[in-house]
Fold this protein.
Amino acid sequence: MSVDTATVAKIASLARIKVSEAEIEAMVPELNGILAWVEQLGEVDTSQVEPMTAVIPNTLRLRDDVIDADPLTGGDKRDAVLANAPAAQHGFFGVPKVIE
Amino acid sequence: MTELTELGVAQIRDGVAGGDFTAVEVAEAFNANVAAAQEALNAFIIATPEKAIEAAQATDAKRAKGEALGKMGGVPIGMKDLFATFDVQTTAASHMLEGFKPQYESTVSQKLWDAGAGMLGKLNLDQFAMGSSNETSYFGNVISPWKRNDGGNAALAPGGSSGGSSAALAARLCPAATGTDTGGSIRQPAAFTGTTGIKPTYGRCSRWGVVAFASSLDQAGPMARSVQDCAIMLEAMAGFDAKDSTSLDLPVPNWEAALSGDMKGKKVGIPKEYRVDGLDDDVAKSWDDGIAWLKDAGAEIVEISLPHTKYALPTYYIIAPAEASSNLARYDGVRYGLRDLPDGANLQDMYAATRAAGFGPEVKRRILIGTYVLSAGFYDAYYTQAQKVRALIAQDFAKAFEQCDVILAPTAPSAAFGLGENVDDPLKMYLNDVFAVPASLAGLPAMSVPAGLNREGLPLGLQVIGKAFDEQGVLNAGLALEQRAQFAAKPEKWW
């Protein structure tokens, strides 16, 4: 499978990265080179193999159902959460208007 | 007296505890080296001399009161700028996170401070840890302190992504540094700079507070100038963390105390698939040296087969970008980091403009690859197939470890290359990690130990890969190599 300029434009849009036409032109051969190379995986017979889900066997844990059990990740952290926001306002994240 | 900056972790810890010198003297000596080398090597994104002094003063005060100093008491370290540090800029070497000051501390860095370590600064790296030469940092290339012995002055790569860590260690700017390894990012830079580093079993060190690249592969580990120093620092970094869902709920062994270079009764596997056509002569010779050293240490050498080795890199370059495209979706210009809001832009335009301005070319390339292989219609052909091949690669290792205790291989296919030599060809750059990636895909502990110099006078590393959870076996084989390699070379100071 290979990508053309339309496909690269579509992927970039899905990835929410603005790209110029010149950038797209440059990316097409690069991405095709990488894709052609990874496609050698197609020659491996995996019909009897389950895809890996965990590299080291582990069980997922549930934390205790207690409010603020961990003070680091618990509540009452509004100012810390907003401390690095580029446009925090009135205790909220500021964004461009999304409804008319 | 030996210069303090020549000392390693154990020597500093013991020297401070024994009163041979104070922790503040050590911190001052390293602070001075950091400052003097910054312009030439660019190993640090920011230096934090005051943090190093503060921690050292705390250690000296504890000693005065007769209190225990901790596993890393009095040892100043470099912190890869992928670890969130409270109120200290954490960038992942990206424009996206320039100026970001976390309001929390990563688990691993907190454990190191609790163990008595101090922070010399935040070390440069490849942007979002994506790279093998430290040429993708927004804050400029790290320059290796090493030079070829051809009389030329070519600037060499310190490896990547932990290139700031490796360069700082080789140049004696720190006695130890944190690294992270997704597909070789601790081991390859260690090999390029004549330093030592271990990536532990996946899950040993908490990922909480480490800027995420590919979560099923990312693993933190120590980098230092000896196996013993790595063992000490790994003890301080490792341990269960409820805040990381893939953290291993296992006690942390006392690796340092159990260190032994005696390999009697141990079997060392030599994977025949790693002896690739066109393997660099010097790399092949250092591998043969390593085999002889482990034999001398009492080990039995057995040939093993890892039949899916050639598929490891393509598997990695599907899985890692796929996970990266998902992880890096968080950088949206809303909650933290850069925002680019063109005039009249709506929310979607803001996302796209922010991400265009905040990510470098290699990061964009990987996000696009990842987005493509996860997109509708292609997911099974690429991503599911890669996860199946990954399972086969892990099975290869499981079978091999029925015949041997550890595996010995080169760390990288060549010594350090020059800056700019591989940047125009992403595939050529990716091939640097050909020997490192398989252990990452299988989640296994693996370390790089310096083996000697090649004909150009540049360091080469040997890699030891172990069974899951058997860091001790890896460290012990590493020690056996270290004791015989007697690697004492260091870059001649030009900076």
Notes: The longest helix of chain A spans residues 21-38. Chain A touches chain B through 55 residues (CB under 8 Å). The domain at 5-43 of chain A is CATH 1.10.20 (Histone, subunit A).
